[in-house]
Amino acid sequence: MLIYLRVLKESFNFAINALKNNKLRTFLSLVGVTIGIFSIIAVLAAVDSLKKEIEGSMSGLDNSTIIIMRFSFGPTDVPRWKVEQFPDVTYEEYQYLERSVPNLEAATFTLNVPNENIKYEDNQVDNVPIGAVTDSYYYIEALKLSEGRFFNGAESNSGSMVVVLGDEIANQLFGGAENAIGKEVRIYGRKFNVIGVLEKEGAGLFGNSKDTSVWIPVNVVRRIYGDNNKSTFPQIVIKPEKGVDNAEFIAMLTQQLRLKRGLKTDETSTFFVNQLQGFADLIDNITGSMNVIGLIISGFSLLVGGFGIANIMFVSVKERTNLIGIQKSLGAKNKFILFQFLFEAVILAVIGGLIGLFLVFIVSILASQFTGDFQFVLSPWNMFVGTAISAIIGLISGILPAISASKLDPVEAIRTGM
Length: 418
Description:
The chain is of the alpha+beta class. The protein is 56% helix and 15% strand. The protein is built from 14 helices and 12 strands. Strands 1, 2, 5, 6, 7, 8, 9, 10, 11 and 12 form a 10-stranded mixed beta sheet that branches. A two-stranded antiparallel sheet has the order 3-4. A hairpin with a 2-residue loop joins β8 (184-187) and β9. α1 (2-21) crosses α2, α1 packs across α12 and α12 (334-370) packs antiparallel against α13. The longest helix has 44 residues, at 276-319.
């Protein structure tokens, strides 16, 4: 063990001397490894950060949550022209499923409507996303209120003129000092009573956030837009009870909605039952593909870096031929010489890799500063991966130079080096 520590120490000293004595040559040889490690770890960190942000934005939803609508989350065997002819889900179908499907924890009916302006006295907020939902949306999304409450079932069913505000909307309309509860705001030219304000969430991945949205009973929007407006893109969102077999639950949902629509056994379902787990799997596949593509592209830089390390090691063997001969004449075994050059190659590659990791760290700090609430994360695992890849590149690049050094004849080596 001691001899290997000695070899490692000597190899480290040789690597440092190479950096000191031949700065330009060593720098040019290491730049490929640095760029390669920077590229790989930057891609891994960016994909990890993106995935973490998406998962964070979906954290309020359980993966077992089901969304029924006329479009599919992923690929489907149904032709596109046929999908375009599917009818939208309706409020009546939502009520029917809520009554008839067992093991259902909560269900909500939602409409997507254009952004609207909200006004309170002289203050106005423009282009605000409107969430038209039923009361159970509160439980499905696991919303948290800083003050007040969400609208209840009676208010939802009757289409009461009540509204729940996001934190930023409340601040812009009333300021931080004024209590929003009980105030009247105008949306769609109508008066709405503020009954609740959500806790501050922070910006989402694409700038969307509950902080900048408001929620009103879906039946208010139904009165304004009607039930045959394709632009509202209705959805039925369902959360099954915990412990329920999802496959059986989805089969029951499908059967009940087919029954409601009067579809025959041989007819294709005119709706899609999408599960958030499927969307999560799709995200995993996309991020996995991004990782693979990034690794392939970065691999070319590492290939160049590997040739650079091999080159500097061959030069090092040539420059130290006399020293190798002396070491062998004093009893140094081939294995000692082999490990000495292998360790040196690994150390040089790791130095290049650490420089690449440092650059990624700097970029991650700058990226987090310029992207607001989106956090660019450089995880300890990615740092370990970067260091390990550097060491492997150094090991592979140093094999041939190390073997050539270990096989030198001591007499010939001393004569050649003189």
